[in-house]
Design a protein that fits this description.
10 helices; 270 residues; alpha/beta; Rossmann fold
């Protein structure tokens, strides 16, 4: 077999299984994405200014304070942000990281896909090669069984491959305890209380737990007002309330969707 044929075979194999991309510079970017096969810079990291997020003042203060300590190399907590859907958990995570960066912090965000949790030790090993602080973001995390949660529990604390000191997890979930409460499984257990406690053990590993709840009408209108003012839009509160009523929900997400609709009706882009 001549060299030309070998070269063609090698080229074909490269196209079928291209070499992994070179590792991203851990000091160069404000945010990264981990999909289980390498760390890549986020194409766009442009979160909402944190001051326009309304109705989450206590959560904002606690999260920014914790991330500031992480950014400065001080002791900081892993954080669980739990509660009703659309209440601003994910938006607050990104905005809080950006707020710390705006103050000169070296902190970077790493968004890790929740379907690749088994690769987190590899990510931890990579981040542990630098002293730059990282907030590892796991969005909308939930488990259908206790067994699936145990691996993450050991990574948070006490396991041989726990996350390095310069990295902390920021996890959002619609479930306060992350694990679905299977009543049938608990009832069939030898000790149902032990089964329930095992399911709660993961949530207990987070040193900071922030709850997000369905907003009342006044808070919803205030959230709309914050978004509208930030984009130079005027609005009628009655119209905003009607939008939420038709959607059957009041939340930060619904408020933003209303503002998008308002901008479209006004011939504007956001």
């Amino acid at each position: 077999m001549n060299e030309e044929i070998l070269a063609r075979i090698a080229d074909a194999l490269d196209r079928l299984a291209p070499p992994p991309p070179p590792p991203a510079d851990l000091e160069a970017h404000p945010a990264y994405v981990w999909r289980g096969h390498g760390l890549a810079p986020a194409r766009v990291f442009d979160p909402l200014p944190i001051e326009i997020l309304r109705g989450v003042d206590a959560q904002r203060e606690a999260l920014v304070a914790n991330l500031t300590r992480l950014s400065e190399g001080h002791a900081a907590q892993d954080v669980l942000l739990w509660g009703a859907r659309g209440t601003g958990k994910s938006a607050l995570v990104k905005s809080a990281v950006a707020a710390v960066q705006a103050r000169g912090g070296r902190l970077a965000l790493v968004e890790a896909v929740t379907t690749e949790l088994s690769t987190l030790p590899e990510l931890f090993n990579l981040l542990g090669t630098t002293d730059r602080p990282f907030a590892i973001f796991l969005d909308d995390l939930g488990f259908d069984g206790v067994g699936d949660a145990r691996a993450l529990r050991s990574l948070l604390q006490g396991g041989a491959e726990a996350r390095p000191n310069n990295a902390r997890l920021l996890v959002t979930s619609n479930r306060r305890h992350l694990v679905t409460r299977d009543i049938a499984e608990q009832a069939s257990a030898i000790n149902p209380r032990d089964s329930a406690d095992d399911g709660l053990a993961l949530a207990d590993r987070f040193g900071l737990s922030l709850g997000f709840h369905v907003v009342d009408q006044d808070t919803y209108v205030d959230i709309v007002r914050g978004y509208a003012e930030a984009h130079g839009l005027s609005f009628d509160p009655v119209d905003a309330i009607g939008w939420a009523t038709r959607r059957g929900s009041r939340s930060g997400r619904v408020a933003w969707q209303y503002v998008v609709d308002l901008a479209g009706r006004s011939g504007r882009n956001l």
